Amino acid sequence: MGEKALRPLNSDPVVSTGPEGVVKGNPDEFYGQAIVAFLDLLGFNSAIHSRWPDGPTSAVRAFLNVRESLPSAGKQVEWGIFSKPDESDLVTYRCRFQGFADSLVISVAVPGGINIGEFSIASAGVFTNVREAWKACICGGFTIRGAIEVGPIFWNLTDIVGPALSNAITIEKRDSSSSRVLVGPAFVRGLVKASRSWGAQGEWLSPRQLLMIDGDGLVCLSPKSLIGPAGKDPLGILQRLDQLRGECPLEAKAKYDGLLRALKNPQQVRTPTVDDLEAYAKSWPVGAPEC
User: Fold this and answer.
1) Rounded to 5 degrees, what angle do the CA atoms 281, 287, 291 make?
2) Is residue 117 part of a domain?
3) Which residue in 25, 136, 173, 193 has its CB near the most CB atoms, within 10 A?
4) Residue range(s) defining the domain that contains residue 124
5) Is residue 9 part of a domain?
6) Nearest to 219 by CA among 289, 149, 271
7) What CATH number corresponds to the domain at position 251?
8) At residue 277, does pLDDT exceed 50?
9) What confidence tens digit (pLDDT) does each residue in 24-58 have?
10) Over the stretch 194-216, which tens digit does the pLDDT of each residue have?
11) How many domains does the chain contain in total?
């Protein structure tokens, strides 16, 4: 018997087309470049052992509640951009959510050749959906630690694998001292490239505004938007985080300190400049992935 012909893998990010425009980002199968966010639920491993028997507060029920609270395809935060100057063609990017053991993965397809505007919109979509997932986790009894990176990936309806996910997991493990979502060097280079292309006039579109430089110099997603403007906190995020910190073991309390400090003192959060991001990307070891 001859060798079985290989089935071509889908590398098209388009999900649907219609009168309202084009939807991209989360086809059922994709093989190509993507922005990938890996989010680890802090405290879930110990909850598995201490709260395993089924009941209202069991670890399994808590995890299911978190998963059910995540944005779905029709309810997630979506970002769009007109691809033509006459605003006749709207392109919307939609993220993909997937469980990965006791972690979450949020991804969006951004294949090679994507324009700067679409890369920015896709990035902003990942940022805002990470925020919504983070809020769902906190309300469900866990905060998160994670990382965002861009690179090659493959996914289908059941699996996800590739360098982008592997690199995001490696970056997340780089520092285990804080509840935060770091950004990787390849992704940062993409943001720098976008910002340099726009100049000052395009800064309003830059997802750079959603980042912060943490106290140790690492760049991460700013948690300020976990609560509303002017300190409004309809979900009680601050109270829940204070409660979670109070309930966790003494050795784990420091993981909450930076997050709570940023939320309680938002005026002290430092947004990185384009030069800051460029220097940050260059500070990573030789061999770090390229965008």
Assistant:
1) 55
2) yes
3) 25
4) 21-282
5) no
6) 271
7) 3.30.70.1230
8) yes
9) 888 999 999 999 999 999 888 888 888 888 888 88
10) 888 766 655 666 788 889 999 88
11) 1
3-class SS of residue 46: helix
- C-alpha closest to that of 98 among 164, 180, 156: 156
Do the beta carbons of residue 143 and residue 256 sit within 8 Å?
yes
DSSP-based three-state secondary structure for 152: strand
C-alpha 168/C-alpha 182 separation (Å) is 9
- For residue 291, tell me if it sits in a domain: no
Does a structural domain hold residue 289?
Answer: no
CA-closest candidate to residue 23, choices 119, 97, 90, 121: 90
Contact 79, 90 (CB under 8 A): no
Residues 6+ apart with CB under 8 A from 244: 43, 138, 141, 142, 143, 256
Q: Closest Cα to residue 170, out of 197, 146, 200? A: 146
pLDDT in tens, 60-95: 888 888 888 776 655 555 666 655 555 557 888 889
